[in-house]
Amino acid sequence: MKRNVLVVANWKNNTTLSDAHVLAMGVRNEIEHLDGVKVVLCPPAVWVTEVRNIVHDQIHHMGVGLQDISAEQPGPTTGEIAADLVESLIDYAIIGHSETLKLHNYDVETISEKIHSALASKITPIICVGEKSQSSSSRHSLARKLDSYLKGVSAEKRSKCIIAYEPIWAISGGSKKSRRAASAEYVNDVAVQLKKVVPANTRVLYGGSVSAENILQFIAQPEIDGVLVGGASLHLREFTTLVKNAARGS
Fold first, then answer.
1. What digits encode the pLDDT tens for the residues 59-89?
2. Cα(60)–Cα(22) distance, rounded to whole angstroms?
3. How far apart are CA 39 and CA 103, in angstroms?
4. Residue in 99, 116, 131, 166 annotated catalytic
């Protein structure tokens, strides 16, 4: 049976307004008529409205997200973006990405509050979990971490979340020579463990040096429902090729 693969593009702290416009337009035009895939663009917060205007609601298999969301309610918290303020602009929010955790030193309670805040505003949280080094015990520890993040979230609402496994040792922050993607079989095993603390229909993505060349390896696995793409999402030709490959393999 053909399934709908989810591809989330995390542009991180990149793109000018002009870059964001050209990239979003290019992605929309290239994939507008594809089946079997949904694409979510997560630009820097300052360009969300621009990207939202390009990825309008008439294109059902495209969405827009933020790279983080505040745990705070609207009020005197300078620099924060409350979920209530952007619920009409975004469909998704990445929560707990390793780079964000490192920068802001968020604890488990704060990540949990962010998830609750997103769900209350009907924003789908893309919850990141990952480990610094590859080990046989990491799969179980990641499931426990995810369960802690989801404390107080009902099974019904857990099924509305998206889980992104992003091994820190494989993400694209380092030099291209030093980073490597995890094996598809290893990621599938991790996904099996993560799905033990969420309903079976909860989607699990892989994010860690995903490219147009290796995308098919991951989505061929039964428990991997899509990918979270970093550096490759900034290059129009590579990213649209990746999305087309995902659609072909769905």
1. 789 999 999 999 999 999 999 999 999 999 9
2. 20
3. 27
4. 166
- C-alpha 240: how far from its chain's center? 17
Please answer whether residues 173 and 99 qualify as being in contact, where contact means their C-beta atoms are separated by less than 8 angstroms.
yes
Where do the structural domains in the chain lie, given as residue ranges? 5-249
| Cα–Cα distance for residue pair 243/250, rounded to 1 Å | 10
Does the annotation count 97 as an active-site position? yes
Burial zone of 80 (CB within 10 Å; 0-12 exposed, 13-18 middle, 19+ buried): middle
Tally of CB atoms within 10 A around 89: 16
pLDDT tens-place string over residues 167-178: 988 775 544 444
- Report strand pairing: 62-66 vs 92-95: parallel
User: Any catalytic annotation for residue 87?
Assistant: no
As its CATH architecture, domain 5-249 has Alpha-Beta Barrel (3.20)
The whole-number pLDDT of residue 138 equals: 72
Q: How far apart are the first and last CA of the chain?
A: 9
Q: Among residues of the chain, what percentage have pLDDT more than 70?
A: 94
| Number of residues that this document lists for the chain | 250
Q: Which of 60, 72, 97, 238 is catalytic?
A: 97
pTM above threshold 0.85: yes
